[in-house]
Write a structure and sequence with these properties.
Layout (H helix, E strand, L loop, with lengths): L12 H32 L7 H28 L8 H34 L1 H6 L6 H16 L1 H4 L15 H35 L5 H21 L1 H14 L6 H21 L2 H12 L1 H11 L11
Helix pairs in contact: 1-2, 1-10, 1-12, 2-3, 2-11, 3-5, 3-7, 3-8, 7-8, 8-11, 9-10, 11-12
Length: about 300
């Protein structure tokens, strides 16, 4: 499944210079945005004293910070005509952080949607299950479980962190790596679809009562679905296509050319996946009216509507 002839040099330098500019743009926009969000959660909302939803949102910010650490390194590689760093240690460290960010982002986006699902569709169950209110415990478990799930991506890499050494066939590690990778996408996506459908049906059935709360819940799970579909599904699909192409040992010239194009598309869709650090603040605003009001009153008070309070 691994392509041992992949030297990690780019096939189209001009295209990767464009990817470089996209990544730098994402970084310059996301860095101040995420710093401002973190300031709100720590100094204004004091998330550790707030309801569980703010704890999950703060952890989502931490996941985005991991991504922001990696983007300048990846961008500089693209500018130099490399798909990955020539230093094997740096290459694997960056990939580890990228996959850790991806797993954390997916996990906390999913848990936010599940939390909203229970509060809207099954409020009685949410009140009786104390574990649903243990946000710090759930968050800690997610961060503890993620590194062991991320390590398989480093054992025998799908990427090109080979340090110019020959990698022997190991089907078990290949399968383990891909099972972990795709299950982190497909299982949460299935859960998100279920939560979205159930909350939407609940809104349609509700004729009286707090329909505004239900609408906010629908907007929230829909926004999570948009972030998920835009940032994680395309890159996972391109990875699957690339895996199928690399399953064949002896490639013709035409097949090798097709694989090179698939690699370029995969790298471009990975750049697209980095948008989650820009789109996540939309989730914050839809998930917490208080966060939105505090953020606007702190940084953009002229946008506050009359009657809005912290």
């Amino acid at each position: 499944m691994a392509n041992l002839n992949d030297t990690c040099t780019v096939g189209n330098p001009d295209l990767y210079k464009f990817y470089f500019s996209v990544m730098i743009g994402e970084f310059l926009l996301a860095l101040p945005l995420n710093i401002s969000v973190m300031y709100i959660f720590i100094f204004k909302l004091k998330f550790w004293k707030s309801k569980s939803n703010n704890v999950y949102l703060f952890n989502l910010v931490l996941a985005d910070i991991l991504l922001l650490i990696c983007i300048p390194v990846r961008a500089s590689n693209f500018l130099k005509g490399e798909r990955r760093s020539e230093n094997n240690t740096t290459c694997r460290a960056v990939l580890f952080l990228l996959f850790l960010n991806r797993g954390a982002s997916i996990a906390f986006l999913t848990i936010i949607s599940i939390n909203r699902y229970f509060s809207v569709v099954h409020p009685g169950i949410q009140n009786s299950l104390k574990i649903l209110k243990r946000a710090f415990i759930i968050s800690a478990l997610i961060w503890i479980l993620l590194p062991p799930l991320t390590i398989p991506t480093m054992l025998k890499t799908f990427e090109c962190c080979t340090d110019n050494e020959t990698v022997e066939e190991n089907v078990v590690i290949d399968v383990l790596r891909e099972v972990v990778f795709f299950s982190q996408v497909l299982i949460p996506f299935t859960v998100l679809v279920y939560c979205t459908v159930c909350i939407t049906k609940r809104l349609k059935m509700k004729t009286v009562g707090d329909r505004a709360k239900l609408r906010r819940a629908v907007f929230l799970v829909t926004s999570v679905m948009v972030v998920f579909s835009l940032c994680f599904l395309p890159s996972a699909t391109s990875r699957m296509v690339l895996l199928l192409m690399r399953a064949k040992d002896d490639l013709t010239v035409g097949e090798q050319r097709a694989e090179d194009i698939a690699i370029q598309i995969h790298d471009g869709l990975m750049c697209l996946s980095y948008l989650d650090c820009l789109l996540d603040p939309i989730v914050y605003c839809l998930s917490s009216t208080k966060f939105k009001n505090v953020y606007l009153s702190t940084y953009l008070p002229f946008l506050m509507k009359e009657g809005d309070t912290e």
